[in-house]
Amino acid sequence: MFLQQHDRARVIYKYALDHIPKDRAQELYKAYTIHEKKYGDRTGIEDVIVSKRKFQYEEEVKANPTNYDAWFDYLRLVESEGNLDSIRETYERAIANVPPTKEKQFWRRYIYLWINYALFEELEAEDEERTRQVYRACLELLPHKHFTFSKIWLLYAQFEIRNKNLTMARKML
């Protein structure tokens, strides 16, 4: 009987969090966290904390899309969940926020988003063709007339060497 009530309350909280505007959901998150701590198990509590952190990161990147440090934290959290489609979608959203100026200092953190994306595709997703596409898209996006990042060229060439594509590696170098 008690277990059914707890499950019912959990479903109501989750439904409310999905349908209430995010600016009014802060108090609801607090109440849901208290409820889970009081009646839930370890996984339920961890789920609440992860969803609350996701909400906070989502608000941060919505307020300042070029805050790449917030994107790194958000991506680390999403990667820990292991959902491949969600991770890719989050990476795509992050790299869509191109720095507004053509000064190299503003591009450094942004380029590391691309590097992490390429490494994720190569090492975690083990998708060789998609990794190649990520590197190529990054190289096309760079304003080469103003500056370039040798690290991208080297990483791409090393990737091609690991995949025994020496002709492409030579072209990249």
UniProtKB/TrEMBL annotation:
SUPFAM superfamilies: TPR-like. Its main location: nucleus. It holds the Pfam family HAT_Syf1_CNRKL1_N. Belongs to the crooked-neck family. Gene3D superfamilies: Tetratricopeptide repeat domain. This is Pre-mRNA-splicing factor Syf1-like N-terminal HAT-repeats domain-containing protein. The keyword Repeat applies. Residues 55-172 form the Pre-mRNA-splicing factor Syf1-like N-terminal HAT-repeats domain. Keywords: mRNA processing, mRNA splicing, Nucleus, Repeat, Spliceosome. It comes from the Eukaryota. It is found in: Nucleus.
